[in-house]
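Complex 253.
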Amino acid sequence: MFELTGRTALVTGAGQGVGGGIAEALAAQGAQVAVNDLDPQRAEDKAKALRDAGHNAHAVPFDVTDHGAVRDAVRAFERSVGPVDILVNNVGNAGSGEFRPRPFRESDPADWRRFTEVNLFGVMNCVKAVIDGMSARRYGRIITIASGSGVVGQAIGVSLYAAAKGGAIAFMRHLAMESAADGVTANTIALGLIDPAASGREGAQVREMAARLPVGRIGLPSDPAAMCAYLASNEASWITGQTLHLNGGSYTS
Ligand SMILES: NC(=O)c1ccc[n+]([C@@H]2O[C@H](COP(=O)([O-])OP(=O)(O)OC[C@H]3O[C@@H](n4cnc5c(N)ncnc54)[C@H](O)[C@@H]3O)[C@@H](O)[C@H]2O)c1
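Predicted structure with nicotinamide-adenine-dinucleotide bound:
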């Protein structure tokens, strides 16, 4: 079940965290993995770790927000290695680095653009680079990692992130309608809190959040990774256009 041998997967932002876990899971199912990250060293380190574990992996660094760079990198990879069958849009930013989570009234248009570029346009750029090939070959699996905040009100200061993730959820739903007849599925994982080792958050606040979840723990990278392995597989050909909530029971739909 969920065998991916012979398939090639491109996972964005796979140098660490959730994306790293997804790359490991797809490789373990037999897929060849293109490990993307903005940080070339991070991409190479993860690809090497996968190769050292006996898998087939390549570092493919690019910035998902740069349309031309995404197009060129995917084209070069497909020419030299082979076509991408599975795309996992994992890159996203809720508020680290120059992305500052803050109430909308304190934001400005530069913030709006920054959050939208990475959390929504990044998804579109990557889909655009692979969708024609997938459709022509009549096989494709597109998975986007979004957030529960794109569906329900959750916290103060995440409106820009949530708006972009909500946009990605709607985009994927309609991409699924446009692509279904070509054998290409498009599904979204609306993710809840993942382990601090993957997210950089830690401490009492996280423990308190875990205690409030029905299952009593926050998520691990292996949780979304397992769902991606299923969604990427042949067996998942009848699921498309869905937003799957993966959150320890904190929200049900
Ligand atoms: N960690 C959580 O608790 C959580 C919860 C809900 C949703 N999510 C979503 O899961 C996804 C992964 O989150 P994470 O916590 O593992 O992130 P992370 O910040 O730990 O890792 C993201 C990786 O993406 C890379 N990256 C950032 N911008 C990039 C760009 N423009 N182009 C290419 N690579 C880029 C980074 O270098 C990094 O290696 C995101 O979409 C996030 O919104 C995470």
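The mean pLDDT is 95.
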